[in-house]
Specification:
- Two copies of one chain form a homodimer.
- With 172 residues, the first copy, chain A, is mainly alpha-helical.
- Chain A has a single domain, classed as Arc Repressor Mutant, subunit A, CATH 1.10.10.
- Chain A contains six helices and two strands, in the order αααββααα.
- Chain A has helices at 34-67, 72-79, 83-95, 111-134, 138-148, 154-171; strands at 99-100, 108-109.
- A two-stranded antiparallel ribbon of chain A has the order 1-2.
- Chain A starts with 33 loop residues before the first helix and ends with a helix.
- Chains A and B meet through α1, α2, α4, α5 and α6 of A and α1, α2, α4, α5 and α6 of B.
- Bound molecules: manganese (II) ion (MN) (4 copies).
- Residues 55, 146, 149-150 of chain B line the site of one manganese (II) ion.
- Chain A binds a DNA duplex (30 and 30 nucleotides) through α1 and α3.
DNA sequence: TCTACAAGTTAACCTTGGCTAAAATACTGT
DNA sequence: ACAGTATTTTAGCCAAGGTTAACTTGTAGA
């Protein structure tokens, strides 16, 4: 419960409460139309349904690449979660046709699982590199990217990618 | 199930698979140390615990400000969720000391609830304005901000704020 | 070989956040 | 005043994601 507290609530952001307003229309910023507002929340709920699956297949792909196999002990350690939890989630991944394995053996990705892992990995990389290009420290960028990646649309991803590229050129 | 699919998986990002690598060290990008990796995921799980609460208090504050009262019908409509769901979540908000209300009456925020709403609102605004400053369309920026906001650390928030400010100055 | 220990699974439990259907309460117009 | 409608709550259901504890399976060393 200690290291996660850099998303500090209390005492954070109390120094500059007004310069949040670079344009004039922020005060009493009207609510969006009800149905559009509902779609925003629906998109978030939607992302939540797949986000854990994405992290799992991404991690499994990484383990397969870097250690040759993906054992559930390693997943449990890296996820910071019990082995029982991993076992149950893997059952779900299998039932969704993303992962295959024989009991008590290493995990593998199906075609579908590899496709999802590739997508997730790419998206994760784009977000992480963008944050670093912005000037965020590596440690923080990794933490933020792990959560943000699931909520970044295609449109935003492309813009992030362009920014990172141009920022790289500026450095060179 | 239609409008949320701009986080498209299939067919998305297949055009430029290689330019994700502005620096050379991306191929076989080593895994972080196990404990640090676990902390990343823990931070995300942590954010998930409060994110709905934050959205609720933020919405309640907005409704109080813009319509004078916060009825659970309105919350249900704006969240795109049933009234029963709102009722149950509100019970939880009350038990956490964030919201107060008498049965069958409008909702109000406690001191604690207002503090959380103010924080959440400010953070939400920073993320939204940052995305717009980056060049993301309003519609997409609103959707992405709704999810991203809960996963942006203090450090990143400050950098976003600076970027937005400077971007505004460049426009003027 | 067989015994210990590591790795994986299963069972039983919990909380959160959804849902529908039914019941209770409040409000409004005649 | 009260009938009818709108709002809110409650009850009962479900899936996801977490836990611990107990059991099973695999593997490596003496
Ligand atoms: Mn990821
Ligand atoms: Mn992630
Ligand atoms: Mn918000
Ligand atoms: Mn939100």
């Amino acid at each position: 419960m200690l290291p996660y507290e850099h998303f500090g609530y209390i005492g954070a952001m109390t120094d500059s409460p007004n310069d949040v307003t670079p344009d004039r229309l922020c005060k009493a910023d009207a609510l969006p139309p009800s149905d559009q507002h509902a779609q925003q929340y629906a998109a978030v709920r939607n992302a939540h349904e797949t986000e854990l699956l994405e992290d799992y297949v991404e991690l499994i792909a990484d383990l397969l690449e870097h250690q040759g196999e993906a054992r559930s002990t390693d997943i449990a350690a890296r996820m910071g979660v019990s082995q029982a939890t991993v076992s149950k989630t893997v059952t779900r991944l299998k039932s969704l046709g993303l992962v295959s394995s024989k009991p008590y053996r290493s995990l593998f990705l199906t075609e579908k699982g590899e496709a999802m892992a590739a997508m997730s990995h790419q998206r994760h990389a784009i977000v992480l590199q963008f944050l670093r290009a912005l000037g965020v420290s590596d440690r923080t960028a990794r933490i933020d990217a792990e959560g943000m990646e699931h909520h970044v649309s295609q449109e935003t991803l492309e813009i992030m990618q362009r920014y990172t590229r141009e920022q790289g050129r500026r450095d060179a």
